[in-house]
Amino acid sequence: MDTELDPMKDDLPLMANTSYMLVKHYVLDLNVDFKSKVIDGSIVLFFETGSQYRKTSSTGKECCQSHFDESCKKRSSEPCHIPMTSVSACSSKYNDFAASGKGEEDTSDGNGSHSNSEQASGISSSKDCCDTENHGNKDFLLVLDCCDLSVLKVEEVDVTAVSGIEKFTRSAKLTDVSKELENLRNHIVHELITLPADCWKDQLYYFAHCSQAPGCGELLFTTGPWSLEIRKSGIQTPADFPHAIRIWYKTKPDGRSVTWTTDQSGRPCVYTMGSPINNRALFPCQEPPIALSTWQASVRTAAGFVVLMSGENSAEPVQLREGILSWYYYVSMPMPASTFTIAVGCWQEVKQQSFAAAIQTNNEFSLPSSQTDFRWHEEVCGHVEYPCRFQNPAARLQAVIPYRVFSPCCLMERCKECLLPLVPQCLSAAYATLGTHPFARLDVLIVPSNFSSLGMASPHIIFLSQSVLPGGSHLCGTRLCHEIAHAWFGLAIGARDWTEEWISEGFATFLEDIFWARAQQLSHDEVKGQQELKALLRWRRLRDEVQNSEEELQVLRPKKESTGEVSESGASVVKYGLKAEKIFMQVHYLKGYFLLRSLARIIGEASYLASLRKFVHKFHGQLILSQDFLCMLLEDIPKQKKSGLTVESIFQNWLDTSGIPKALLEQDEAWEQCPLVRQVSGQVTKWIQTNQRIRKSSKKKTKQEEVVFQKV
User: Fold this and answer.
1) Could you read off the pLDDT of 604-658 as tens digits, one per residue?
2) Angle formed at CA 491 by CA 488 and CA 493, multiple of 5 degrees
3) What are the DSSP E strand ranges found in 336-395?
4) Bias regions of kind Polar residues — which residues (predicted)?
5) CATH topology of domain 347-353+383-680
6) Which CATH architecture has domain 14-55+137-261+278-302?
7) Catalytic annotation, residues
8) Residues ≥6 apart with Cβ < 8 Å to 260
9) CB–CB of 230/125 below 8 Å?
10) Are the CB atoms for 464 and 438 separated by under 8 Å?
């Protein structure tokens, strides 16, 4: 039996019962209203039953492949454009609702409980719907992560009403006549979800049209502080529960997943700023990392605003009517819902000179010779099937992926001088280090001044703080390299347990130095000096943080041997995920960085980077735990260099304990011997002495003036 989660504690609850049902695809259809500071519309979720997904996918794949091979080949040569327009009579009503921004009234009872309108559905509501029994058996309850949302209606989607959908029913084996239609709908969703990767355009096409199909029955629902619970009367198993449901909802102006503010030019904007509660206040979803899903979204807003989003395509706006534009994005690589990102504002694209664009094009497909041994290994990927860039010969040669830079209009010139030239350099350096870029393109956005971090990486988009611009190319470049590194570590390879943040941040901190050194084309001595200086500064920052923080927050693997475990339903918690102090701590960046640095010194940097490339190639598109990386790395270390190094010893000395690891305690004196460190230390000492003399002189002058004033 699941332990009840207490939302008042410091742990962030992940309520979704992913062991029973898994979201495989989201279709969002939203309106952004800056006057009311509300995002409203609908989201359609397509599910697979958790316990049967892996068993049935191979069967469904074979069936679909026989029906779709010819159509896939034809469509794959065409550009992907999924029109979000009406496909049935119901769609005009659907779009009218969306365009007007008006729907059913919020039926909150003041205690967080909601239900569908009794007059509309004829279903009596109940706060205790999860306890309602049918002939002695409880109805199955679907639980989604949800917070700060007004849910208006939940309904089953009749996917059988979509034109052309009959091709998905050819292999259906329907035996129970009474449930024939319900089983057929779930069968169609299963066939659609398990289409082979080369049919991804067909898949998006039918997902879009299914999302606009009419409803075929409202579902009971209840909202709590952290969840949305949905049931269908008389349905007791996940297999029989509707596998395509539509949720009508709207956000709240003070919802914690998005920030409504103004940019540096004083114009309104809204964006996802990396909230500790992730995206559950933007749309109902399954938050646990295991719920890897794809998505597509149409977002409507007033003309003059630009919608940027996690998406493989560079969206171009479509005018729906005067003053209203629609933006469409999609993702075909399964990702956690927490990585979905959106930013809507009066952003301006920072354009590069035409000759610079030509240079980028000419260098775009250069292949460093040192990477050829790794790049051409024709191995089968270990992730679920999707259109993977690591299996695409053209993508494997692409040193610089297409990129754009956006900012408020008042910062465009500064971005053009400082940021724009660095993007291709940093992308090329990252490619030379790790190989194939996991994502096909990149947008970089300078976000509003209330952004609380220096940067944040999401699929296909990076947010940067305005604070990196005055620091010149060094601060801007190092931060850009850090966020680019997250494309591999944090996004393409994610932590199976979010408490292991070091897997993302430790790797990004370590790799930013490698990327930036290559982007600057520094000599060996310059690279060593720069890295030693940074190591010293990071060590002192870590020392200060350890002295001024709670011990429990200094542990990189706080759940220790329970890391990665979930309850029977799939629900779990992110330990200390809501603790206010944790948001501002750097310990998972710094201790993770020093662990990786120490391992690199043992194995040698060249061998170590080769191991990282091997690890990326094996685990991209998957979720990992610390031991997955450590076991693979230790296999590559010669026995004579291991000197007792084991996964258990690394856990004990680095990941499962607080404080500074013993291996770092004697490093301060060693760093002081670096010539660049001595040079900088001398300059800092001189600067401090100069300022002390100025302050003393100022104090003496002030004291003399006070004496004169008193005499007068």
Assistant:
1) 899 999 999 999 999 999 999 999 999 999 988 877 667 778 999 999 999 999 9
2) 65
3) 342-345, 348-349
4) 109-124
5) Neutral Protease; domain 2 (1.10.390)
6) Sandwich (2.60)
7) 483
8) 34, 37, 253, 268, 269, 270
9) no
10) no
